[in-house]
Amino acid sequence: MTARVLVIGEIRDGHLLASSLEAVGAARACAGPSDRLEGLLVGPAAAAASPAFAAAGLASVACVADAALERPTPWAWSRAIVAAATAAGAELVILAGTAAGRDVAGRVAARWEAAAVTGVTAIGRAPGGRLRLSRPVFGGRATQEVEVAAPRAVLAVRPHAFPAPAPTASAAPATELPGGTGPEGDGRILGFEHVEGGAGPDLGDAAVVVSGGRGVRAADNFSLIEELARSLGAAVGASRAVTDAGWRPVSYQVGQTGKSVTPQLYVAVGISGAIQHLVGMVSSRVIVAINSDAQAPIFRVADYGIVGDLFAIVPALTREVRRVRGIA
Amino acid sequence: MEIVVCIKPVPDAETRLRANPAGTALDGEGVKWALAGYDESAVEQALLLKEANPGSRVRAVSFGPAPRTEEVLRAALALGADGATFLEHPAEVVPDPLLAARAVAAHLGRATWDLVLVGKQAGDDEAGLFGGALAELVDAPSFGGVMALTYDASARRFTFRRSVEGGAEAAEVPGRAVLALQQAWNDPRTAKLPNILKSRRATIDKVAWATTAGALGPLGTPTTQSVGFRLPAPRSGAKMIDYRTPEEAAEKLVRLLQEEAKVFP
Ligand SMILES: Cc1cc2nc3c(=O)[nH]c(=O)nc-3n(C[C@H](O)[C@H](O)[C@H](O)COP(=O)(O)OP(=O)(O)OC[C@H]3O[C@@H](n4cnc5c(N)ncnc54)[C@H](O)[C@@H]3O)c2cc1C
Ligand SMILES: Nc1ncnc2c1ncn2[C@@H]1O[C@H](COP(=O)(O)O)[C@@H](O)[C@H]1O
Fold first, then answer.
1. Which residues on chain B are in Cβ contact (under 8 Å) with A303?
2. Which residues line ligand 2 (CB under 6 A)?
3. How far apart are CA B193 and CA A126, in angstroms?
4. B161 compared with A9, residue with greater pLDDT
5. What residue spans define the domains of chain B?
6. How confident is the model at residue A196 (pLDDT cuts 50, 70, 90)?
7. Which residues lie closer than 8 Å to B58 by C-beta, 6 or more apart?
8. For residue A190, what pLDDT band results from cuts at 50, 70 and 90?
9. What pLDDT does residue A195 have?
10. B63 alpha carbon – ligand 2 mean position (Å)
11. What is the three-class DSSP state of B31?
C-alpha cells in the first residue's frame, strides 16, 4: 500500500530553511519507492518557495498563502498542518527540529492523535514494519532507539542529521489550500531581533561552531573567537563562564542550561570541559580543543587537541583558515 | 493569578548513565533523581510571578512513578509552591511525553488557571513535546523558548521574549496560556532548611493512575516504545598536535580537518 508522507517546510524572511530540505531527505529515508511525499508551506512566500522545496523530491506542494502565517504562532501553524495532513490522508508528518518546529510538533501530535518523536537522527524499520528512530538523549550522552506504536506519527528531525537531497528538475504542482487559521487575538509575535554579532549562521543550525570560555579572560578579547568563527563561516558559542560574566549574551550559551548543538565541527577555545558544557556539544561530529592546560577534561571528548596559549594559537589559526579559504 | 508549574524528575547531571539489562532504556537503579535544569527555571519563574502579583498561587504538578515524582513535588513545595498534585503512573520510566501531557490535561481541564509553565525540554528525553501537546489539549496558546516573562495584571497579558535561531522574538499572550521556558537565565533560588522540613509534612494531592486511565480511555496507551539505549563508544582521546610555533599548529590542524576529518568548510 502507498503511504503518504507530509513534509512541512519552514520559511523565514521569505526563504525556505536548509533544514526543511533535510526533512525531505529524512522523509525519503523512511518512505518506500511507491510512497508519496507531499509538502506543505504556509505564509505569503509559500508559492515562491515551493519550486525549491519540490525540487528536493516532493510529488506536490500544498501552499497556504495566508498572510497571518508569515511568522505563524504554534497554534495557527498546527491547525494548518493538521488540516493538510488530513486532506492528504497522510500517515506521517515530518518537519525540521528548529525552535519553531519543536514548538509545533507536540501540538500537531495532540491534535492529530499521533505519536511524536523529536531530535531524530536516523530512521529505519523494525522487523514488523514499525518505524524505528534514533535520537540523542541526555544532551547527547546517550542514544535512544524508539519505535512508533501508533498508526500516525509526527517526526521532528535534528538539523544536519540528514543530507538535503540534490535538487531535481521537478514539475510538482503547487496547490492552494484555504487559510482561515482560527480566531485572532489569542497572542502574537510582535517582532524579531537578531542577537549582537548574529550576522553569522544560527547557533542551533550551524555546520561549524566556535565557542570561547573563561580562558578568553575579558569581553573585548572575545573578538578573537568571533574572527576565527567568521573565517570559518561558523556560529559563535560560549561557555556559561562567559555568559555569567556578561561578556556575551545568554543566547550564546552552549550546554545543559543553554543550547544543544550538533555541528559537523565544534571548536572549543579556553573551555575546560565541565559536564554541563559537554552535554550541549558532545554529539558534534568532530571536536577540536584549544587549551593551555593539557589535563583539561575537554581533551577527553576532543578529536584534535592543541595545548597552548589561545592568544597565540587563535590568531594564527584565523590567518591560516583565511589563507586556505582564500579570504582576503 | 493561578499558576501551574509542570515538573518531572530527571537523573541528576552527574549521574553515570547505564542501559538496563535488556538494553532498551535507562537503568533507573542507583540513579539520583532531581528537579533539574529547565524545570528548576520554571519553578523559579512561577515564584517570581507570584511575588510580583500578590494573591497569586503556585501549584506544582507531576506525572510519574512513586517515589521520585513525589520527591520533586516536595522540592517544589520547599522552594515555595503553595500546593502539589501527584498524578501517579505505574511504569518505571514515563513512557512518552504525549501521554504525560494527556494525563495532565485531563486533570487541568477541571481546574481554573491562568498560566502553565513547563521546561522547554526535559533533561532526560529532551523531547520538548509536553508543553505544546498540553496546550493543544486544553485549547490554549503556547510558546517555547520563553525568557524574561512579565505579567500585566490590568490587561491580563503576558509579555516575554523567546529564543529562536539567530536571535529572539518579542511576543505576548493573554492569560490562560502555556509557556515553555528557555533556560536558567533566572538563577533559581535554593530551598531554606525550615521550608525543606515543612515540605516533608505537606500534603500532596494524589490522583491514582486508574482515575487518569479511566479519563483517557484508549489515549492512555503510550504511542512510542523505547527499544534501545546506547552509550557512545568513548572517543579514543584527542590526537594532540605537536608544534614549535603557533603557525605550525594552525597549519597542521587545518590539514587534519581537511584531509583526515574532512570537515573543513
Ligand atoms: C546547574 C548548572 C548548569 C550549568 N550549565 C552550563 C551550561 O549550560 N553551559 C556551560 O558552559 N556551563 C554550565 N555550567 C557551568 C559549568 O559547570 C562550568 O562552570 C563552565 O562550563 C566553565 O566554563 P569555562 O570552561 O569557560 O571556564 P573554566 O572552567 O574556568 O575553564 C577555563 C579554561 O580556559 C583555559 N585557559 C585559561 N587561559 C587560557 C589561555 N590563555 N589559552 C588557552 N586556554 C586557557 C583553562 O585551562 C581552563 O581549562 C553549569 C553549572 C551548573 C551548576
Ligand atoms: N511526566 C511529566 N509530568 C509533569 N511535567 C512534565 C512531565 N513530562 C514533561 N513535563 C514538563 O514538560 C517539559 C518538557 O518535557 P519533554 O516534552 O519530555 O521534553 C518538562 O521540562 C516538564 O516541565
1. 235, 238-239, 261
2. B 6-8, 38-39, 42, 61-64, 94, 97, 100, 104, 118-119, 121-122, 125-131
3. 51
4. A9
5. 2-220, 235-265
6. very low
7. B3, B4, B5, B43, B46, B47, B50, B80, B81, B82, B83
8. confident
9. 55
10. 9
11. coil
The CATH architecture of the domain made up of B2-220 is: 3-Layer(aba) Sandwich (3.40)
Q: CB under 8 Å to A153, separation ≥6 — which residues? A: A91, A92, A93, A114, A115, A116, A117, A131, B223
What is the rounded distance in angstroms from the CA atom of residue B204 to the CA atom of residue B184?
Answer: 26
The 10s digit of each residue's pLDDT in A253-296 is 998 878 888 888 999 999 999 988 998 898 888 999 999 999 99
Q: Which residue has the cell 522545496?
A: A53
Which residues partner with A61 through β-bridges? A39, A174
Position A180 scores a pLDDT of 61
In terms of phi and psi (left: phi > 0; alpha: psi -120 to 50; beta: otherwise), the region of A141 is: alpha
Which comes out higher in pLDDT, residue A214 or B14? A214
Considering CB atoms only, which of B98, B183, B227 is closest to A147? B227
* pLDDT band at residue B81 under the 50/70/90 scheme: very high
Per-residue pLDDT, A185: 54
A182: its cell numbers: 482560527
- The pLDDT of residue A266 is 97
What letters, b where the CB count within 10 A reaches 16 and e where it falls short, cover A298-318?
Answer: bbebbbbbbbbebeebbbbbb
C-alpha B235/C-alpha A273 separation (Å) is: 14
Taking the C-alpha atoms of residue A276 and residue B243, their distance in angstroms, rounded to an integer, is 31
Domains located in chain A, CATH noted: 4-186 (3.40.50.620), 208-325 (3.40.50.1220)
Q: Rounded distance, CA A243 to CA A252, Å?
A: 7
Q: pLDDT tens digits for A197-218?
A: 445 567 877 889 999 999 999 9
pLDDT of residue A183: 47
